[in-house]
Amino acid sequence: MNAPGEESQKMHKRRISLLLLFVTFSFLLSACGGTPAPASWPESLVVDKATLQKLTTDQAIADKQVDTLFVSSGSFVYAINAETGQEIGRYPEKAEGTNMYASAPALLNGSLYVGDYSSQFHSIDPTTRLQKWVKKDATGRFIASPVMIDDLILAPNADGHLYAYNSNGEVRWKFAASNGIWSTPVTDGKTVFISSMDRKLYAIDPGAEGKVLWTVDLGGSVVFSQVLGKDGNLYIGTLNNEIFSIASDSGKINWQVKTSGGVWSPVVVDNDKIFAGDQSGKVFALSSKDGSKIWETDAGSPVVGGLALTDKGLFVGTQNGDALCISVNGQKVWTQTVGGKLYATPVVSGNNVIFGVFEGDKSLAALDENGKLVWTFTPSK
């Protein structure tokens, strides 16, 4: 048992930690307006070698492809060898003033799509990293990744609009929420679901130029958090310390439960369980049927990024720079100190789990499934 003074110090440190996160979040919220945001943390997409080889008819280019990590970090989108951590290339070749990239790139129909902090939306060749086109139709920052439905690329923006681009970069239509959109849309192939900082979840019809089918008031802002389960239900966490299960066909709330802290990132749905982390530092499992708590463990520091699930367990990063592996039964398997702040959702490549690092001495750290450091990446100047 800790002495009273030790416990008081721990509580004081936790309050300071949460205050710092709130300050960081307050700065980031400026993306809904016009003032500059100070930084972005690395967000990543893994694309395997075979997929990249199919995207080019030039055999010389195809032969050079490896499992690749595309990372938005600062002024560039980097292409990194996922096995070694070596930089393959970057886009653009030179930094464009103070412009920054904050959202994970998305590989859609053979092109890499990513938005930036200067309201520009880019289409990039993933094998050569050359620009196909760039458009500036938005007025806010692109913070979330796009998705594709039919022939439309749907790109959410902090100006409160969801832009529907065709493959040539022309805006076919746009949907307007009443506040910034920070979350990546999800779709069942017919309907698009998008949540906003206006505390609402929308179901829209992409075939009818974004016509609203139904709306649900969530009572709290949604940052990056929404998932469509195989059961046809939407699972959404909010900054109001709640997780919802909502029927995607009607907008009916199946259940809603309180969490210990705000939920920033998407939950992980695995059969009849939901796994998530929150701003209080708790990692937990809920029943997807009724939201009842199955287990809960303390990560020791706020959890901002989402969880990565493999057959080895759940992988999570924390604000104090620790990477953890937690079994699907809630037991801590290992903890490895990476440093910095691990705000990004980790991604998996082969046997490695890759963490984006904010305010650290590196930008990425790859650990194997036993917690051993495999490689780190720090951009060259």
From TrEMBL:
The lineage of its organism: Bacteria, Bacillati, Chloroflexota, Anaerolineae, Anaerolineales. Residues 168-298 form the Pyrrolo-quinoline quinone repeat domain. It holds the Pfam family PQQ_2. InterPro entries: PQQ_b-propeller_rpt, PQQ_rpt_dom, Quino_amine_DH_bsu, Quinoprotein_ADH-like_sf, WD40/YVTN_repeat-like_dom_sf. It comes from Leptolinea tardivitalis. SMART domains: PQQ (SM00564). This is Pyrrolo-quinoline quinone repeat domain-containing protein.
